[in-house]
Q: What sequence folds into this?
């Protein structure tokens, strides 16, 4: 995965785009771009979100929930550091994030979605994330009513869709209908969904039924 990183004045909210084509290759290869935002660290939830979390049902021991929240925040913080991403992947961070993402706790879900987003910023880690089975989990997280979780997951999936040779895996995991449903939520999410769909269409051979 190589390409040019550039910025242009537009209404994309400060997004950076990375080309998936290689100069000098076949001109039939489409010019497809995947949105990438700057790495961000964990941020405290708003008062309204915190009140919603307090009103949400607690399915587990409160001490267990709090401990897992701290664990998720720690992984998210480590994933925000480029020099730590490869090492935490080797230590099994993806499997842990998949388990934590299944919790019915919005704070934990937000930390997990942010961690996945930061990990997917590294092109060489995207295959590992896809092969670990993270796509269905990211799609489920993307259905969260919280806007930040939706955006983090949508951007993560868009960047995963920019991984050459893994497009069919994403399609089999149900990404296309998830992106179609996402496109009707907000203009920003529609833009991300279109970029992800363009990435999925950037293949050498047609998809087979």
A:
């Amino acid at each position: 995965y190589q390409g040019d990183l550039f910025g242009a004045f537009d209404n994309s909210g400060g997004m950076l785009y990375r080309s998936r084509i290689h100069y000098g290759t076949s001109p039939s290869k489409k010019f497809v771009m995947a949105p990438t935002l700057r790495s961000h660290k964990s941020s405290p939830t708003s008062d309204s979100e915190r009140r919603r979390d307090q009103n949400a049902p607690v399915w587990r021991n409160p001490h267990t929930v709090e401990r897992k929240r701290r664990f998720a925040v720690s992984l998210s913080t480590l994933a925000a550091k480029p020099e730590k991403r490869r090492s935490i992947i080797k230590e099994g961070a993806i499997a842990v994030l998949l388990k934590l993402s299944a919790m019915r706790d919005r704070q934990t879900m937000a930390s997990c979605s942010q961690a996945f987003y930061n990990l997917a910023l590294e092109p060489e880690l995207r295959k590992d994330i896809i092969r670990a089975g993270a796509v269905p989990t990211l799609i489920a997280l993307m259905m969260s009513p919280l806007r930040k979780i939706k955006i983090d997951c949508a951007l993560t999936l868009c960047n995963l869709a920019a991984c050459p040779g893994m497009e069919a895996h994403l399609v089999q995991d149900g990404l296309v209908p998830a992106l179609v449903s996402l496109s009707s939520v907000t203009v920003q999410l529609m833009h991300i969904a279109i970029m992800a769909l363009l990435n999925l269409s950037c293949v050498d051979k047609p998809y087979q039924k």
Remarks:
- The beta strands are 5-6, 16-19, 33-36.
- The longest helix spans residues 62-79.
- The first strand starts at residue 5 and ends at 6.
- Residues 1-45, 53-59 have pLDDT under 50 and may be disordered.
